[in-house]
Each structure stands twice: as C-alpha cells, then as structure tokens.
Amino acid sequence: MTESLDLKPLKSARGTVRLPGSKSISNRVLLLAALAEGVTEVRDLLKSDDTDRMLDALQMLGVQVESLGDNAYKVHGCGGNFPVKEAKLFLGNAGTAFRPLTAALALAGGSYELSGVPRMHERPIGDLVDALRQLGADIGYLGNEGFPPLQIKPPSPPSPLPGGEGRVQVRGDVSSQFLTGLLMALPLTGRAVVVEVVGELISKPYIEITLAMMARFGVRVERQGWQRFVVSGGQRYHSPGVIYVEGDASSASYFLAAGAIGGGPVRVEGVGSESVQGDVRFAEELAKMGARIEMGPNWMEASGPVSGQLTAITLDCNHIPDAAMTLAVAALFADGTTTLRNIASWRVKETDRIAAMATELRKVGATVEEGADYIRITPPAQLHYAAIDTYDDHRMAMCFSLAAFGTALRINDPGCVAKTFPDYFAVFAAVTQG
Hints:
Layout: E1 4-7, E2 12-18, H1 23-35, E3 39-43, H2 49-60, E4 64-69, E5 72-76, E6 86-90, H3 95-106, E7 111-115, H4 126-134, E8 138-141, E9 150-153, E10 166-171, H5 176-185, E11 193-198, H6 204-216, E12 221-224, E13 228-231, E14 242-244, H7 249-262, E15 263-269, H8 282-288, E16 292-296, E17 299-303, E18 310-311, E19 314-316, H9 324-330, E20 334-335, E21 338-341, H10 353-363, E22 367-370, E23 374-378, E24 387-388, H11 394-400, E25 409-412, H12 424-430, E26 432-433
Parallel strand pairs: 2-15, 3-14, 6-7, 10-11, 18-20, 19-21, 24-25
Antiparallel strand pairs: 1-25, 2-26, 3-5, 4-5, 7-9, 8-9, 11-13, 12-13, 15-17, 16-17, 21-23, 22-23
Helix pairs in contact: 1-2, 1-3, 1-6, 2-3, 3-5, 4-5, 5-6, 9-11
C-alpha cells in the first residue's frame, strides 16, 4: 500500500460522481437481514473495510451470505437465532459493526468475544454495556472498564425480561451508536421495552436512519420526542425481499465542497432530497457559505459562489457530525473565521478528530482554536505545503484532499480511505483539474 500520495495544486473541479453505498445503511441492513426471517437481497452495498468486518462476523456466526457480484449479496436470515453459539469476532475499527453486534449478541444466548484494533479498544462502549445489563445481559470487560474487548455470555435467567413492559436507560451524549445498537436488538427479546435517553441525544439523523431501516424490516419504533423510544412486544424482523443501499451522504460532502471551492459544477448521484441520511443537509450549510446548490430526489450539485469566494459561518453541527469535518477544510477557502460547535463526538471517533483536525489545519497555515466541543478556523492569506497525517482515519484523508485547491500537499497513509471509499482518490482525480 502506498505510504503517501502527492497532490498537485488544483485549479478547478467539475464532473459527476456516482457515490458508493452508505456505510451507516450498509452495516445496519446487513445485521437486520441476518436477524430477519427470510432471504434478503442487498443491492449497492458499500465495499469497504467496515462492511467486510460485518460480513465476516455474520458468516462466523453461521449466517449464510452469498455474493451475487456487483456489490450485491443474498443474506439468509436466521430469525434472530444465530446458528453459532460460541465465537471470537475481530471487528477492526468498525464502530457501525461493533456496537450493534454487541447488543444483538448480548441478547442472543451465546458466548462471544468481541475485539478490534487498538483504537477500537480506546473507543467507549460502557454506556451501551450498562444499558444491556439492565436487560439482564452478561457482559464483561477483558481490558479496561468501559471499553472493548468484551466477553459476552448467555443471560441468566435465559429470558432476561420479565413479563410485561421492560424499561431501560441509555446515555445519548457520547455516541448515537449506543441507542442504535440497543433499538436494533430489542425485538430479539420479544417483549415491549421503553428506552429512555439520558442527556442530549447527539447525531439524531443517524437514529432516523436506524428507525427507517428497522421499519423496512417490519419493526416499528414509537419515538416520543428524542427522549423516549417504545418498541412494542411481539415484533419480529421480516425480509423486505430486495433492499437498495443509498449512496453515502457523508462521502458526497467532499465532492460538493470541491464544486464549491473549485467552481463546479460537481454533481453527486445516489443521494438527494429523498434521502434518509441526515448528512444530505451538508448541502444546506455549504449554501450558507455561498455555494450554489441544486438538488433532485437522487442527486445534488454544487457550484462556486457568484462572488467567487466562500464566506465563513458559525454552525451547530449536531445534525451533520461526520460531514461537518468537510466544512473545517472548506473554511480554509472562506472569508473570515468559521466556528463549528457541538462536535464533542469527534473526540471518540476513529481518532480524536478535533485534535487531529486542529493539528493538520495549522500545518497549512491556518489559525485554529479548539475546545472540548468546538473548533474555530481562520485561514491564512496563502496556504502552504504540508505533509498531512491521517491518523488511520478515512475522513481526515478525504477532507484534506480539498486543501489541494490552495497548495500542493502530501497525504500520508492514503490507503486508510479503504474504511469507506477505497477508490476515493481516483474518483477525486477524475473531477478535479490542475
């Protein structure tokens, strides 16, 4: 794998990009298809490290998965009863696999060991474990308290929830994946369960994705504001037959920003006004910086501002936590100081993204202030060359490709984009001109 990639200065961007499948939807759909009754054909699945980890895990758990070619798979559902009752699963750095699988396996009645790369063992999971223990799950920590790796044993008694309605509390202010994992697993209990969210729920659009995907598999969740979720008893997942994975809205952000910075138009296909993904709202925020945005049901397009330069914004980013990283680099091309707030979740991602972003933005000359949950960026008069470290974080690599509109630069460890978008740099090169 190439250790670094040199990018020449870019002058413009225009063209059309067909997006890879959404990581968030892909891994949710794979797990739900495995838990469902019947056979599900999943089309346009993302091909990436994260989905590979989920596919490997499901097969180790005895779920039959057939590749149909062209990013399509046939998943033979196990009706919530994994055939393999004892397994050791390695899940890399895939939070979208680790958190939901932890919840499903904790209620599945087997003995499982879940581990990942060293960074995954630094990413908190205690809030999810605490919630699952309220349901009677038997989960132990094999390393540091509150963090993977985990040891899961069959609940005792085997049916953890007594008759009637169960009630469980889960924190919502660290990662929405805890609530996602819990909600997706609850139908396995067969009981009615009320989930109460403690604290502010971050990344709400990702919960919308979870609820939409559960509904596609026949399970309805009653959402009472963002603090209470009711899963009624007796619901089971059923295959929808064929399901298509939307294009990845977070990945769309890099190309929309390229169109805004490099003149455009750059069009992305696979997401649009009818998308279930919250990150499509990135386009609205880019428009606030002056970009010209057009949108259809399944496409979005960005062009540069009429004035020729983007303008700085101050933004609460709770609704677009991943795509907001792209705005941090777009801020290098904006007039004024950009402030991105409510991004505490960045600190528990593939790396501490606030610290990493601040460090690398300073390398190209920006003045950066960082806090517990915000970052403030003032661009320099002229960007200058730097070798950008990516921290084994796919989004750091993809975001900083945009800095090439202001300077030549080097991207270290470009291969980390394999987590969600293995051919990103080839696609980026196809719509940018030096």
